[in-house]
Amino acid sequence: MIDDPVRLLWAAATVVIWLAFTGWTVWRFRSKPAPAAQPGSTLIAVASQTGFGDELAGMTARAFADAGQVAQIKSFAEIEPVDLTTAARVLFIASTTGEGDAPDSASGFVRKVMTGGANLSDVSYGLLSLGDRTYAEFCGFGRALDGWLKSAGASPLFDAVEVDNGDAAAIRHWQGELSRLTGSVAAPDWAPPSYAHWRLVERRLLNPGSPGEGAWHLAFEPVDGVLQWVAGDIAEIGVPAPEGGLAHREYSVASLPSDGRAEFLIRLMQRPDGTPGLASGWLTQTLNVGEIAPMRIRANRAFHGPDAATPMILIGNGTGIAGLRSHLKTRAVQGSTAGAWLMFGERTSAHDRFHDEELQAWRTNGVLTRLDRTFSRDAGDGRYVQAVIEAEAEAVRDWVGRGAAIYVCGSLEGMAGGVNAALETVLGAEALRDLVENGRYRRDVY
Ligand SMILES: Cc1cc2nc3c(=O)[nH]c(=O)nc-3n(C[C@H](O)[C@H](O)[C@H](O)COP(=O)(O)O)c2cc1C
How far is the CA of 362 from the centre of ligand 1 (A)? Predict the structure, then answer.
């Protein structure tokens, strides 16, 4: 509770600004059709799952603007084949998700455009592929896109630039290619926006006694950071690396700016030799309350919420509740009565009911219309979250029929695939594909 009137005023002002910003974002991304590519211009075509590609697209457009030239950014979801042949050149920025898969925003492009026999012999292109070598299919989508562009007759302006886990040298290489294209010698500022300072103000173990590893609730207040993000956004935290410098780790933000703090749910990871994971160990064991962590918050458009009138089905497991909680908080602030159904899976009902009080309060006041939890280690249950989808098939079809959007947050391994398979069984593969392509099935999995 806030009982200081000045703080209350500030909190109210933050909510108003935040609502205006959210409304503007929704309006901007939902209702305005993207204008067609300008003849002779540069088109920046971006397929991003977690927002890094979107950020690089913005920096790429700025490099052209700094050289007095126009470059238009379009998401793959907005690109028509004619855009590719109208622009003088196309710069593709393409990340890979899943197991070598295209980001969700590109799935319609892959299905409708990349499978057709396009003639792109007049198209010149550059390609920046984002990936991570720890995955089996490094830059799987970028490479597939490159192969398709070449087979359709398009001419590469330079060899594809592949970025391994945000590698700064590869990004500088892309910057060099852009300088060649724009004829500009002035190097634009490519340093990613720097970390701000955030103070750890609270850390609490949410699952004492759990058979799983500790799951910690952490809250940070800005020292010189800015309370500005929307549900679905991601925090990048700089963690001291053994070799010096900072290792970069990403976490779903579990709170809203109107809370006055950035909250997280972080699971302590154990390495096979029993030592704690680098980032989770530092955040849950080494960093003390009162100390500072370097952090910045990045927009993650692919996981932004629908408007308040759209019912939501939120599905997740483990620490994935973090990314879903910020959406439920948004619903509470909006006073949305459209309905929200949370399906959540953890290990034991005795120890792993994360944020239970808050969820029960939302059940009571109607923010949460349905709450179904599964507990895989409970003798009477033993189910994973995807079991709810199949058991409640009729209700899931009814919600989707009424326009619900589906949001999934949590583990890639096990949960995301299982949920996807259950949704396919219940809704049908084609209907599920349409939901992806219309932005009504969104995933933030890791
Ligand atoms: C769930 C998940 C799956 C991923 N799968 C792959 C993969 O199969 N191959 C790869 O090279 N990188 C993979 N990555 C790494 C991303 O491509 C990389 O982090 C990239 O910088 C993300 O860019 P974006 O934020 O624009 O989507 C994966 C990342 C996540 C979170």
Answer: 34
Question: Domain 42-182 falls in which CATH fold?
Answer: Rossmann fold (3.40.50)
> pTM for this one?
0.89
User: Edge-to-edge strand order for the sheet containing 262-267?
Assistant: 246-252, 234-240, 292-298, 196-205, 215-222, 262-267
CATH number for the segment(s) 305-445: 3.40.50.80
Q: Using alpha carbons only, what angle is made at residue 396 by residues 392 and 399, rounded to the nearest 5 degrees?
A: 140
- How far, in Å, from the CA of 97 to the mean position of ligand 1? 4
Ligand 1 centre from 54 Cα, in Å? 13
List the residue whose alpha carbon is closest to atom 31 of ligand 1: 446
pLDDT digits (tens, 9 = 90+) for 275-307: 999 999 999 999 999 999 999 999 999 999 999
Ligand 1 atom 9, closest CA: 138
The string of pLDDT tens digits covering residues 309-327 is: 999 999 999 999 999 999 9
Where do the domains of the chain lie? 42-182, 196-298, 305-445
Going by CA atoms, what residue is nearest to atom 4 of ligand 1? 97
Mean pLDDT value across the chain: 91
Pocket lined around ligand 1, Cβ cut-off 6 Å: 48-53, 95-100, 103, 130-132, 135, 137-140, 166, 412, 445-446
Question: Is the complex ipTM more than 0.90?
Answer: yes
Averages of pLDDT over runs of 10 residues in the chain (446 residues) are 50 48 40 61 96 96 93 96 93 96 97 91 97 97 98 97 94 94 75 87 97 95 97 97 92 98 97 95 98 97 97 98 98 96 97 97 97 96 97 98 98 94 98 97 96
The residue written with tokens 């088109």 in the block is 43
Distances (CA, A) of 338 to 359, 398, 405: 17, 14, 11
CATH assignment of 196-298, among 3.30.70.580, 2.40.30.10, 2.115.10.20, 3.40.190.10: 2.40.30.10
Query: Residue 285 is encoded by which pair of tokens?
Result: 């064991």
Give the Å distance between the CA of 11 and the centre of ligand 1.
Answer: 36
> Residue 165: its pLDDT value, please?
93
